[in-house]
Structure formats: C-alpha cells, structure tokens
Amino acid sequence: MTSTAANQADSQARSRRIIRQLRTGLGPLLAALILICIGLSIASPEFLTTSTLTNIMVQVSVVGIAAVGGTFVIITSGIDLSVGSLVALSGMVAATVMAGSSPDNVALGIAGLGVALVVGALVGALNGLSVAWLRLVPFIVTLAMMAMARGLTLAISDGRTKFDFPNAFTAFGAKTLVGLPAPMIVMLVVFVIGHVLLRKTTFGHQVFAVGGNKEAARLAGIPVNRVIFLTYTLAGATAAVAGIVLAGRLNSALPSAANGLELQVIAGIVIGGTSLAGGRGSIVGTFIGVVLIGVINVGLSLLGVNPFWTQFIQGGVIFAAVLLDAVSQRRKL
C-alpha cells in the first residue's frame, strides 16, 4: 500500500513538472507553431497535406541534425560557427574516399560514412581542445575553424563538385524506410538520442551545471574541461551526420554546400528556448524551433512571398527570440 502511494505521488509530481514546463517553457513555442500552421493552412489549403509536411521535415533535416550537437555547446555557454563548413568538409572528404566507386560498392560506401564521422569528430575535438584547455574564446576559435574547414573543402575538391556515390552511402539521404524519407528518420533518431543523452545521463546533467556556473561546477567535482571538450566533439559528429545526409540527398558533394548553415542552426536552437547565456535549453525545444523555421520557409513560399522578405521575417523571429531570452535573464537578476 505504501509503495502504491509512493508511486502515485511520484506520478503526480512528474505530471506537475510537465505542466509547469509547458506553461513556462515549450508550451508557448508549441502554441506558436500550431497557430502558424493553422494560419498557413487557411491561407494556402495545400500547406496542410502529407506531402508538404513531409517536405518540411526533409528540408529541415540537415539543420536539425546539426542543431542537436549545437544545443549541447550553447547550453555550456559556448558557440560553434564552424558547423556549416564542417558539414561541407565531411561530405567532401567522404566523396574523395569514394571517388570512382560503383553504386554497388558497399565497402567504399561504409568507408565514406566512417571517414566523414571521424573527420567531423576530430574537427569538433580540436574546437573543444582550444576552448576547454587552451582557454580561447569560442566565437573566435570556431570562426577560424569555419574559414579553415571551408578552405580545406575547396582545396580537396579543387573547387569542383563530386558526383555519384555508392548506394550504401546515399541510402541515408535518398532512400525511404517504412514509407518515410531517410533524412527525416535519421533526424528523428538523432533528436531522440540527443534528448536521452541530455536529460537522462550524468553527462547531460553536467552540461547544464557547466553552463549554469563553471566555477561552481568545478568546485562540485565536475570535470568542466572534459565536458566542454565532449560537447564540441559531439557537435562535430552531428555536423558530419548532417553532411552525410546532405551529400546523400544530392548524390553529390558541393564545395559551397551548407554555406550559412551555422546561422540557421543557431537560429533553431535559440528559437527553441536555449539560452545564449548557457545553463538552459532542451532538445525538444530545438526540434520545435527548427521545424518552426521550416514551416515559415515553406509556408511563405506557398504564399508567393518574395524570398528577400522571407529572410527578413526569419531575422525578425530570431531577434524576438533573443529579446525574450534577454528579458528572461534580467528578471532572474
């Protein structure tokens, strides 16, 4: 009887936490997404169709995958501007390894996948090493890495696009599974893994502690440098996965691929409620933020809005998200 009462009390406490989070955190964001979808479906009936919604998920897949790792970095009060260049570099290195292979060459396809992931993780680790142990400013470090990774991509490719990869590689970007596009499935899997890692593991709790107060986290025995290092390594790995999906979708690796992607990634993360000051954020919020951007892009396109105004509206949404975050931070002081 006591055990049953304890379970009921625990269930009620969990329900209260969820309701409180919906009221103060994700609830308004989710409500905004739903209202925008309703408004767009009224203005353009073709918006609320299976094909359009699936297309939105595919379009945001690359940004969404990269945003998972970026969420960890920003929660620690860091920033990663190299993600777009790293997406391009990972895809180009994989394309170089697979050059001249036939579509049925499974071994080279798997090699391309492995090399892309290793390159992404290594570049992310270099960012993490520079920020954590060399104590360099994240903005400057990742800005420099953005230029170096893009330059290396151009040097490897000689400025040329590389085409035709093995099916084992393109499957992650161009195939379907249980009737759903592979990019969408890969994105959802990465988001689920990221959510579990952030909310259900010791590492995730340490990420929040480091972002909240590095000195307090260090005094509590948390290996702050190692946590920061791992978050940047994770960001590099997810950027590589995004690069694999993008190259697979296009069946080609472009030197200019993912140009400016870092801004979309940061936008999705910030709109999703992750604070640029660190210590607060969620993978679920990032998912909603990324989808919101995709909904705005596709919806305005269906309405025939000038693309320049679409970019302006995106900027306005980002500005509003940063403003709300700043107001929230000031209220806590």
How large, in whole angstroms, is the Cα Rg?
21 Å
For the biggest sheet, the summary is: 2 strands, antiparallel
Mean pLDDT: 89
Task: Output the strand order for the largest sheet.
Answer: 1-4
Overall shape: it is globular
Structural classification: mainly alpha
Residue share in β-strands: under 5%
Low-confidence sequence ranges? none
Helix/strand order: HHHHHHHEHEEHHHHEHHH
Tally of individual helices:
15
SS elements, strand count = 4
Distance between the termini: 45 Å
Give the fraction of residues assigned to helices.
Answer: over 70%
What does this structure look like?
It is a multi-pass membrane protein. Keywords: Cell membrane, Membrane, Transmembrane, Transmembrane helix. Its main location: membrane. One of its GO terms (molecular function) is transmembrane transporter activity. This is Ribose ABC transport system, permease protein RbsC. This protein has 333 residues and is mainly α. It has a domain at 60-259. The chain is globular, with a radius of gyration of 21 Å. The strands form two sheets. A two-stranded antiparallel ribbon has the order 1-4. The longest helix has 27 residues, at 106-132. The model has no long low-confidence stretch (mean pLDDT 89). Strand 2 and strand 3 form a beta hairpin. Helix 5 (83-97) packs parallel to helix 7 and helix 5 (83-97) crosses helix 12. Helix content is 77%, strand content 2%.
